[in-house]
Amino acid sequence: MREELQQTKDKLEQANSDLSAWKFTPDSQTGKKLMSRCRTLLAENKELGLQISQGKISQLEAELALQKKYSEELKSSQDELNEFVIQLDEEVEGMQGTIKVLQHQLTAAKQETEEYKSKLAAYEQNGDVLSENKPFLNQSREIKSKIESADDFNREIKKSET
């Protein structure tokens, strides 16, 4: 019986709540309480929203600062690499100039050698090796030997270039 009484009281209370909600007006006591509670909840929601957005903003600001720092490091590294490449380019240009000069000298030496070879061959063929020409003949043979060594060296350089 007590149980039935309790159930009946609960039903009555629920019915009164439903009736109050149905009769809700902003001027009624329940309406005023509900409106006040809504305002309080809205203020709390607004405050929580600000806290959440400020947390996200500060996190994004920290990430942005890290990205800026990383970007600056990359720029600095790129500048160093550019300077190094420019320096290498200048060195390569200097070496190319030196190589051209050496190639020109080698070509001139080859022509001179060919002249000496032909003169030497003519002397040896004719047997015209006079005593006064013997130093020239010995010098020509030494030059011929040096040129052959230079030719071997030049071939090695060409092999290493390819």
Overall mean pLDDT? 81
Distance between the termini: 110 Å
- What fraction strand? under 5%
The biggest sheet amounts to: none
Number of strands: 0
Give the count of structural domains: 1
Low-confidence stretches: none
**What's the helix count?**
3
SS class: mainly alpha
State the order of secondary-structure elements, H for helix, E for strand.
Answer: HHH
Radius of gyration over all CA atoms, rounded = 52 Å
Shape: rod-shaped
Work out the helicity level.
over 70%
Main location: nucleus
Keywords: Coiled coil, mRNA processing, mRNA splicing, Nucleus
Protein name: Pre-mRNA-splicing regulator WTAP
InterPro entries: WTAP
Characterization of the model:
- It is rod-shaped and about 155 Å long.
- The longest helix is centred in the middle third of the chain and has 98 residues.
- The chain is mainly α and 162 residues long.
- Helix 2 packs antiparallel against helix 3.
- The protein has one domain.
- The mean pLDDT is 81.
- One of its GO terms (biological process) is mRNA processing.
- InterPro entries: WTAP.
- One of its GO terms (cellular component) is nucleus.
- Keywords: Coiled coil, mRNA processing, mRNA splicing, Nucleus.
